[in-house]
Amino acid sequence: MDKISLDKETILNATEEVIRRFGPDKANITDVAKSLKVSHAAIYRYYNGKTALWNAVTERWLTHLHAPSNDILKEDSPADIKLCNLLKNFAEAKRLSAINDPEMFANYIKLACNSMEVIEKVKKDGMNRIEKIIVQGITEGIFFAESSHQAAKSVYLATSVFIHPNSFEDPDRKQNIESVVNLLLRGLKNPNK
């Protein structure tokens, strides 16, 4: 086999390509190794099996998927506008990925059914982003919450229905997102403002 400079990033890139080519059910480590022109044992030096590799590729994919939310956190805007933008971004990111990158989305769904480790990390990250904005809103006097953590968890849970594939084809989806986000923002508003 040809010598290739192998690292985790190269393996993850190849794994995404293989998943997109064969789908998450048929793709395997041997396919990844063949695409890199290395032995499958070379892959095991970096990842101790298919589950670890698929978890890593899904985690990286989700990180890229949610990268725009980092920009939202940096926006110079009031917390209520920022939270509205973030929640809409969360809802649309998964729907658009299901349309634009169906194989990787299918891999994410499969992982969500089989391994909660990556999914729990993503949920925690989403709640942390929401909490940062809620804390900003409390500081600005826009929001009131006895516990920013509990408020963030409640907001996440209330909007998580929109990241589920069953909601993607709902003809009232955009209206429903708007209604839920507006309700949540009204619930967080400081009653003294």
TrEMBL record:
Residues 5-65 form the HTH tetR-type domain. Keywords: DNA-binding. Residues 28-47 bind DNA. Gene3D superfamilies: Tetracycline Repressor, domain 2 (1.10.357.10). Signal peptide: none annotated. Transmembrane segments: none annotated. GO terms for molecular function: DNA binding. This is HTH tetR-type domain-containing protein. It comes from Lucifera butyrica. The lineage of its organism: Bacteria, Bacillati, Bacillota, Negativicutes, Veillonellales.
